[in-house]
Amino acid sequence: MSRRRSKRMKQLNLTSMLDVCFLLLIFFVLTASFDLGEGILPTELPHDGLSANANPTTPPPMPLNIALRSLGGDDVSIQVSGMTAAPADFHELYAVLADHRYDPATNPTAPYMEEDPITITPDRTVRWAHVVNAFNAARRARYANVQFAQAR
User: Fold this and answer.
1) How many domains does the chain contain in total?
2) Range of the domain at 93
3) What is the distance between the alpha carbons of residues 83 and 54, in angstroms, rounded to a whole number?
4) Which of 27, 37, 89, 107 could form a disulfide with 103 if both were Cys (CB 3.0 to 4.6 A apart)?
5) In this structure, is residue 59 part of a structural domain?
């Protein structure tokens, strides 16, 4: 009888382990999500195909760029892109920027909105105080998006 037992190999009972594996496989297949999540963008589209403020005959205005160039000492040259007359000082720069900002009550035909970007581009030799004065003039004229370009 001892010979018979030694000839038989012992086998593992894999039934319960296979049951657990199949249960885990079914669980992961049923709970997996293979699609990409959709994002929701809250917008209000115009009903007539045009935006409320857009005029189809006029192109959008070119961005405002304020170039500052040092003339030596405390003198600085101020140039605003798209305008032929250069402001002599920062008070005139404020007046020019305010005259070109859209306001439904006082200036409904002005081309620039408060959100339109204004870029201040200083020369490498311009004093930091002049750059700050140009920034203050733009903010005083109630422009919200004032940014700086790298010095040339």
Assistant:
1) 1
2) 64-148
3) 23
4) 107
5) no
> Within a domain: residue 46?
no
In a domain, 15, yes or no: no
For the question of whether the overall pTM of this predicted structure is more than 0.85, the answer is no
**Tell me, what DSSP letter sits at residue 17?**
H
d(CA 149, CA 81): 14
Specify the CATH number for the domain of residue 141.
3.30.420.270
Q: Is 88 helix (H, G, I), strand (E, B) or coil?
A: coil
Q: What are the tokens at 61?
A: 């205005």
Length in residues, the chain? 152
Q: What is the pLDDT of residues 23-81, one digit of tens each?
A: 999 999 999 877 766 666 666 666 655 555 555 555 556 778 999 999 988 889 999 98
Q: What is the SS3 assignment for 38? A: coil
CA distance 110 to 142: 14
